[in-house]
Amino acid sequence: MTAPSLFSRLKTCALLRNVRILYMTPGFATRVTGCPICGSSQTAFEYKNRYVPLDRCVACGHVFSRKLPGKRILNLMYGDMHYWTKDKFHQGITEIRPSEQWQGFTGARVGILERTGLLGDGAPRKFFEIGCSEGMVLHELHMRGHEVMGCEMNPEISEEGRKQLGVDIRTAMFEDLELPRASFDVVMSFHTIEHVKSPRAVFEHIVQILRPEGTVLIEVPCGPEEYNNTDHLHFFCEESLKRLIQDYFEETEVIDNSYTNFEGVQIGSLYGIGRRVKAR
């Protein structure tokens, strides 16, 4: 057998390190044929970002990537500390340890838990965070006396969180985790659901691990300005977020929100809250 040429080896290396090329190469991404939120087949082209076309569901308004990334693409996007560094830089955060840098970040997330009554009446509660990154929000809740656990698919980030903050972080995608059923009071996720391949698969797992009277709190970015964010597979509107949650919970609430990042850019988001798991 003839050894591959230098050009062939370089070409293969470039292909496997280039997310844009991988999206165009058969076998590295799968085609989406219907709305991942309501299941409607009535969709229309919405936008084309650097990697993929985005389609809009005519029925619920949800915008989604026409292609879903495979494991190779996901590992390239989220496989090391570079993603954390890039993401947190825009929030003025440069280190994984409690400091003044984190006040705005943790304050916003713990603040919405307080305003919506999800911290309870002072008694310790059990929280799970999907896509917890380094675990700083969980650390803050633990310092307030709550029991906490989270998951993060990036092995370098989750390891740093365990080491620096002592938080129980499982290195895995949430829907792949084996967790005890009906054992958490609150499942929360901030700016993560828009990254997952199947929001419904995530919610199926959420309702399994929540207690019957439990609550889910989801925050997602919103607005057409998000379309160029190639990390995102889903672009929620109020209607699509509400439809997703109300299929699994007795009571649904969507709260409009906006915040300003470290660079002075205003970003829109939605909080989705579901209370009391529907009988299955």
Describe this structure in words.
- By secondary structure, the protein is of the alpha/beta class.
- It has helices at about 5-15, 20-25, 70-80, 80-90, 105-115, 135-145, 155-165, 200-210, 240-245; strands spanning about 30, 45-50, 55, 65, 65-70, 125-130, 145-150, 170, 185-190, 210-220, 235, 250-260, 265-275.
- Strand 12 and strand 13 (about 265-275) form a beta hairpin.
- The chain is globular.
- Residues about 5-15 have low confidence and may be disordered.
Could you tell me how far the N terminus lies from the C terminus, measured between alpha carbons in angstroms?
A: 58 Å
Number of helices: 9
Q: Give start-end ranges of low-pLDDT stretches.
A: 7-13
Helix content, binned percent: 25-40%
Task: Let me know the number of strands.
Answer: 13
Assembly type: single chain
The coarse overall form would be globular
Lay out the secondary structure:
Elements: H1 6-16, H2 19-24, E1 29-31, E2 43-48, E3 53-57, E4 63-65, E5 67-69, H3 71-78, H4 81-89, H5 103-115, E6 126-130, H6 136-143, E7 147-151, H7 155-165, E8 169-170, E9 184-190, H8 199-209, E10 210-221, E11 234-235, H9 238-246, E12 249-260, E13 266-277
Parallel strand pairs: 6-7, 6-9, 7-8, 9-10
Antiparallel strand pairs: 1-5, 2-3, 3-4, 4-11, 10-13, 12-13
